[in-house]
Amino acid sequence: MQKGSVNKVILVGHLGGDPESRFTPGGTAVATFSVATNESRKNTEGNWEDHTEWHRCVLFGKQAEFAGEYVKKGQMVYVEGRLQTRSWEDKEGMKRYSTEVVGNAFTTLGRRNTESGGSQSSPPSNDDDLPF
Fold first, then answer.
1. Helices first, then strands: H and E counts in the chain
2. Of the candidates 106, 100, 102, which has an alpha carbon nearest to the alpha carbon of residue 65?
3. Cα–Cα distance, 86 to 32 (Å, whole number)
4. What is the mean pLDDT of residues 65-76?
5. Residue 18 gets which letter from DSSP?
6. Mean pLDDT score, 32-57
7. Measuring CA to CA, how many Å separate 14 from each of 31, 72, 79, 99, 103?
8. pLDDT value, residue 3
């Protein structure tokens, strides 16, 4: 890590759809999904409006397997990771970009999915574990 450099993202929001799961040629599980976060803003007339922001996320390994098997559209999730931008050329030769959150911590929040039997990974679930 470069001195003075930080690339950290924390999202708490709802899944926009079921995660899409696959495996790399080397056998590593990959899950991709979108998370919606919401905030209220005052418009020019002074009225409150809801604004939804969509975030593309990707998980690897055991967390990807968990998400692909147990996490469903609409569930509230916690994702912690870093931003990464990929680029490629489309069929017409245009350069395209996609920025996504590469997760290193992931869990479901709120009411548990009755099929899942629990959640995976951080954040701490017990207030006694918090350092403040």
1. 1, 6
2. 106
3. 14
4. 94
5. P
6. 93
7. 16, 10, 11, 19, 15
8. 81
